[in-house]
Amino acid sequence: MLLKELGEFGLIERFRRAIKLDSSVVKGSGDDCAVIKWDKENYLLFTCDMIVEGVDFLADTRPELIGRKALAVSISDIASCGGIPRYAVVSLGLPGSFSAEKAEKIAKGIFSLARKFEINIVGGDLSRAERIVLDVSMLGRVEKRNLCLRSGAKQGDIIFVTGELGGSIAGKHLKFTPRLKEARELVKNFKVHAMIDISDGLAADLSHILKESGVGGFLYEEFIPQSKASRNLKDAIYSGEDFELLFTLSRNDAKKLLDAKVDYCKPIGEINGKRPVLRLLDSSGREKIIGPHGFRHF
Amino acid sequence: MLLKELGEFGLIERFRRAIKLDSSVVKGSGDDCAVIKWDKENYLLFTCDMIVEGVDFLADTRPELIGRKALAVSISDIASCGGIPRYAVVSLGLPGSFSAEKAEKIAKGIFSLARKFEINIVGGDLSRAERIVLDVSMLGRVEKRNLCLRSGAKQGDIIFVTGELGGSIAGKHLKFTPRLKEARELVKNFKVHAMIDISDGLAADLSHILKESGVGGFLYEEFIPQSKASRNLKDAIYSGEDFELLFTLSRNDAKKLLDAKVDYCKPIGEINGKRPVLRLLDSSGREKIIGPHGFRHF
What we know:
Chain A is of the alpha+beta class.
């Protein structure tokens, strides 16, 4: 069977079955970060992301933006677990015919975002490769009480999203600012039940939350905030790389958040039902089941 | 300027100047692992290694061996800092036309070595790529007193190496067992001043120790253990990917090690001189300066 037939998630599922973990691992594969015991107050978060020429950026993408994106996607993963990014290592594969100046610009994109978010770039690996490839692994810290996983959504929760969705391919996917400040504000002021960053698309990532939490949910079509760059509602629901936060709060906390007029968060739906099914409700109350379609590598 | 003109180490040097680190980082880029403060007794070790089709293995290399190598090189880095590998994340880039069975065999190579060394594979990233690329990031633990860096070699130290050198390209580079057991035995029983694993080649990696320690050194030509697979002495000195341990001990500890008849370690030279120059002495006492030549990506 070819990878494109089995699919990305099919392969990952097969991988996961082969993994053995000891008791120091709080959460292994299957969330935005792995969670490892650290000290009395904190967990260690560990995540990696590979970005590849022709898939995540193009050969003529500005090199600073390539470096920037490589780091930004990992910061977004740490943020969506409620943590603070601290350390990163960067592997970089480049062709021999690549210009040293361009390589330095990739590095500049990494280092300037690292400085902005106070992340220590503590190591790396440089390799020859036919096409540009970057891999960033990042470590973060999260207070035990602030840890957010995909699996915490509860019946009756309100579903929120930050910012606006869709059309990221027009540029946002290279220039987004990871929602770290917002994530930290949320976990400090509310009991966030479940959180994920939207990388595969709203429908796909909300489906991850539903599946891991063992609950159903529905979205109010008219409440989904569409970005100006999105072509239509479908684009806002299914297209990937928005890197916005998608999270759920109890009704009480939801009311508190709405009363506080936190302008970057919008309620878009509710957790309801015991089967992990996602429904879309239009303004006249008609509902349809929507699949977890979104961006997939295979 | 092209990368192949500036060279791998030239580019890395340029990168390093741009890095800012906070006081929680004991050692950043420039050793086998980054070293980060963890708790009262231990440091956290953090390393990454990227392996690429056509450079580190071939398209028709047995897939289990590809996965195995990706993990083994990082274990070797943790070992050469004196530590114990604990957690890893794996990024895997594969073509869409790749077979799912072959992908599972790559994973099998990773997981079976992980089980052998009791390493938790806690996460990963799967991406589409034109050619096979793997990146492993690994975390390890090392007791503060057992940390080994490249920078600790001292005047009068004896230089040792484990195993035999050269000819790794014939197969060892895909099948080597990382010298973790040996490294832990060494750091527990001796005060290892400096240690590195031989990935770029004996001359290149010993030069890293000399440079970082600010000392000179010489090798006794006749003492260098040549593997059967090596074509000649030059091959044993300059070819990469032996993944043996290269380390220095005080004369007292060296005597202890020799008396203990630790059969996997051979003395091959001495630390001598204040300038980081490496000399080779032949059996009739003639010496020549040898350069830090070895495997380079650019």
